[in-house]
Design brief:
Layout: H1 16-29, H2 31-36, E1 38-42, E2 46-51, E3 63-68, H3 103-118, E4 127-132, H4 141-151, E5 158-160, E6 166-167, E7 178-179, H5 206-211
Parallel strand pairs: 3-4, 3-5
Antiparallel strand pairs: 1-2, 2-4, 6-7
């Protein structure tokens, strides 16, 4: 947690030395993993571990466990209960940016692998650990790892990426903590909305003026639009009542809730 592996599109917020420090710390903390598994770096600072399988079928499709160790900027440190990169442990919780998203999942994978290796376990099929370094900026390291494996003819049997958390109070009517399992990947949608309409003053847009009987001034004229006769009697509109909130008609100034004056 103490490594400030911040991923950002602002160059001054990214410190490459923190990423290298994190990678070096993994080697110190998980020596069995680094001794038994093949490791290659992808797209700079992403990590791809391969745990060779020992099963009888060499064609068995492998599994891929994913996580990322980059985090978003922490913002104002004073707004945190404990400093965001302190790794503070209060006896119950570990505090810090990335504990949930997503260094916690990476550590869980590494802890499990280290323990299994120490116990003499070997998987029946290949296992890959793919750890990204720029997920928070919709980076390309995960795509680079996928392209690398596809280029080697590898089609995974299972890919397990980060998902939901064990959260309390996340769903109406559910009072106990619930483990949220994600079965699909969210994507990105960019939408551009474009409208076209003749120009006009914001208080009297052309479409509104046509519907309500206003006549636009001639081009180059400074004259204000003239009013035509109101289509509804200014004395009383059908549907109006004492209990109905009244709207003011822009043509006859008569308070009115009818459709002609809305």
């Amino acid at each position: 947690m103490r490594f400030r592996t911040v991923s950002s599109r602002r160059d001054h917020e990214v410190d490459a030395a923190e990423f290298e420090g994190f990678i070096a710390a993994l080697a110190r903390l998980y020596p069995a993993v680094h001794a038994a598994l093949d490791l290659e770096r992808v797209n700079g600072s992403a990590l791809l571990f391969r745990w060779p399988g020992t099963g009888p079928d060499p064609a068995a499709r492998p599994s891929v466990l994913m996580a990322h160790y980059d985090v978003v900027p922490a913002g104002d440190p004073e707004a945190w209960t404990h400093p965001p990169f302190s790794g503070h442990i209060d006896g119950t919780h570990l505090w810090g940016r990335g504990t949930l998203d997503d260094k916690g999942q990476l550590v869980a994978v590494m802890e499990a692998a280290e323990s299994l290796l120490e116990a003499g376990f070997a998987p029946a099929r290949d296992l890959y650990f793919s750890f990204g370094n720029n997920e928070e900026t919709a980076g390309d390291s995960a795509a680079a790892a996928a392209e690398l494996l596809a280029g080697r003819g590898m089609t995974p049997w299972l890919v397990l990426d980060e998902g939901g958390a064990v959260a309390g109070g996340a769903f109406p009517g559910v009072t106990r903590p619930a483990a949220v399992v994600g079965v699909a990947e969210k994507g990105i949608l960019d939408v551009e909305l474009l409208t076209r309409d003749p120009g006009g003053h914001a208080s009297t847009l052309p479409g509104w003026a046509r519907r309500h009987g206003w006549r636009a001034p001639s081009p180059g004229s400074n004259a204000a639009p003239s009013r035509s006769r109101c289509r509804t009697s200014p004395r009383r509109c059908s549907g109006g009542s004492a209990r109905t909130p009244r709207r003011r008609c822009g043509q006859c100034s008569q308070g009115c809730p009818c459709s002609a004056h809305r």
